[in-house]
Amino acid sequence: MTNSNNDSVDAKQPPKKTVVSNFIRQLISRDNASAKYGGRVHTRFPPEPNGYLHIGHAKSICLNFSIAAENNGFCNLRFDDTNPEKESQEYVDAIKENINWLGFSWQGDVRYSSSYFDALYAFIIQLIGKDKAYVCSLSPEQAREYRGSLTDSGRNSPSRDATIAENLILLERMRAGEFENGAYSVRAKIDMASPNINMRDPVLYRIRHIEHHQTANKWCIYPTYDYTHCISDAIEGITHSLCTMEFEDHRPLYNWILENLEISSLRAESGLPDSEYVLPGQTEFAKLKLNYTMMGKRNLKNMVDTHAVSGWDDPRMPTLAGMRRRGVTPAALRNFCESVGVSRSESVVDLGMLEYCIREDLDKNAWRAMCVLRPLKVVISNFSADYLIKLLMSNHPKDESQGKREVPLTHEVYIDRADFEEMPPPGFKRLTLGGEVRLRGAYVIRCDEVIKNDQGEIIELVCTADLDTLGKKPEGRKVKGVVHWVSASLGKSVTVRLYDRLFNVENPESKDVEDYRDVLNPNSLEIIDNCVVEPSVLTRDAKLNFQFEREGYFYLDSKDSKDPKDPAPTDLYFNRTISLRDSWSS
RNA sequence: UGGGGUGUCGCCAAGUGGUAAGGCACAAGGUUUUGAUCCUUGCAUGCGUUGGUUCGAAUCCAGCCACCCCAGCCA
């Protein structure tokens, strides 16, 4: 997790060129045609630093950065850090790194809502001065009562009729730290009878005597999301403020706040010339949901805190940090985000689509190698004990430009236990007693003898190689099976981690599930020691993604392992990103 | 039962009044020294539903049904 350039697949590789129409692209085309924003397109990705980014965020990141790039515009990274209680610098750092890893660069410096706190304070004075906001003495509990319900309108706060002067004094006293948390709040003066509950005098500022990760102890009052987000967008000269559907009800408030402020003062903060300045507009799209996946930040944090997983970067997590350690590439994620599309309908994407994108990219770019997960010794009887040839094999079967590697073949090799059967099922294409199979990239061998231990377990196979089959088909017969193998004496011992989905139900966050712990997949992680990998994988530096032929895609993990460039590594870990597609059901 | 949304193939998703794109999944063939990849073919007389307007409707109108979001001083 230290070097973002260390991944074997280029993070800057452009996404697929198949640009699909969607309602946001159409909206922007219309805005450009009408010159609503003078042709400017300026978006932003506004995470709250209260957790790690997950694949749902990736959709938003790709959308915001791509839509800006397509239109020669810009995209800002802005931390929406108005709630210091839940936020931390650790999350800020991780988020920045994840976005770079995904392959995007934000415009200018990283922004923070907290760096607008002075401006936000000046604007609240302006709003109070226009009798559009007031200081409310209701406690949070009372405020809830006064707000009414979904079907009943609310009642006015007793503080609603205070004079502007009184409000201004109370505001200053709030800021000075004279009151306890919750004693007062600043509220917009809109309409307590509005059918939209967000418009029933929403809270704009609250008292929180707590240190902030960016502004330390400068403030004890903090602006709320609704008040901060629209103004931050306006200050940054954002044109298209994209967010998810649950904020649709907030759009009237977003607009109300900006429209009740002097546009000239907003413009002044933006630094944009008058001719280019237009208020931003919010547009909502459906968030990404994936089946068999839990996306709620609160739940993900709980899994980390309770050690249900090893951390935010556990390879089973849907976090960007986790998927990275799993071996998922940035290009695969970007292609996935593009291929799921953008719409306003609630949708749950099938995990299979993500898996397809991962395989698609890895098949094209991952170097091939052989690794035997469950070794079974094969003695090739017509090779001498000191037999050694170095076979040259392609790093990629369909792309010679990716080069070749040396694979040593010796008297004894390992194949996978699953590739030999004494009693083969119908259709079995692997090795049987008396049968033949091709050692991938090497000779065809025939099994002559099965050696068992006292328990009757197969411990060794004695085989004969057909010396006339190197690089050519055997004479007069067909050998269908191909099996991967590794030299017994020259192979390297490694540990492999196999991952499966974390949950065994499609929707672990559905109302039918009382506790996600009840639906955890107990077999989501399988660790296999003493796997044997061909030596070349340890010498090909900078490459971390491999396809172990016939097994799947694996990622050399830097965690819990020695430096991969160590000339004599002893503890090597390969995480299985994903298996190969398997159309042979057994 | 207030307000705001959404309903097009098992899953995403184009379509914006002229007669249902594409991808995933699935199925059947072909190639193959990875049971992978790749290639070929198939896969909605139908667009939540019922009516209406129209020469013509997934697209326009009306009603109905289903599902999602909102009563944090969270975002």
Explain what the structure shows.
By secondary structure, the protein is α/β, with parallel strands linked by helices. The protein folds into three domains: 7-283, Rossmann fold (3-Layer(aba) Sandwich), CATH 3.40.50.620; 289-365 and 492-533 and 551-586, Orthogonal Bundle (Glutamyl-tRNA Synthetase, domain 2), CATH 1.10.1160.10; 370-487, Ribosomal Protein L25, Chain P. Helix content is 25%, strand content 23%. The protein is built from 13 helices and 27 strands. It has helices at residues 23-34, 55-70, 89-102, 117-129, 140-147, 164-176, 225-235, 251-259, 263-270, 297-305, 320-326, 330-340, 351-365; strands at 42-45, 74-79, 111-112, 133-136, 185-188, 203-207, 221-223, 240-244, 281-285, 367-369, 371-372, 375-380, 388-394, 404-410, 412-416, 420-421, 431-432, 436-439, 444-452, 458-466, 482-483, 485-487, 492-499, 525-533, 545-548, 552-556, 573-579. Strands 10-25-26-27-23-24-11 form a seven-stranded mixed beta sheet. The protein has a seven-stranded mixed beta sheet with strand order 21-18-19-20-12-15-22, with no helix packed on it. The protein has a four-stranded antiparallel beta sheet with strand order 4-5-6-7. Helix 2 (55-70) links the parallel strand 1 and strand 2 (74-79). The longest helix has 16 residues, at 55-70.
Summary, kept brief:
This protein has helices spanning 23-34, 55-70, 89-102, 117-129, 140-147, 164-176, 225-235, 251-259, 263-270, 297-305, 320-326, 330-340, 351-365, and strands at residues 42-45, 74-79, 111-112, 133-136, 185-188, 203-207, 221-223, 240-244, 281-285, 367-369, 371-372, 375-380, 388-394, 404-410, 412-416, 420-421, 431-432, 436-439, 444-452, 458-466, 482-483, 485-487, 492-499, 525-533, 545-548, 552-556, 573-579. The chain contains 13 helices and 27 strands. The longest helix has 16 residues, at 55-70.
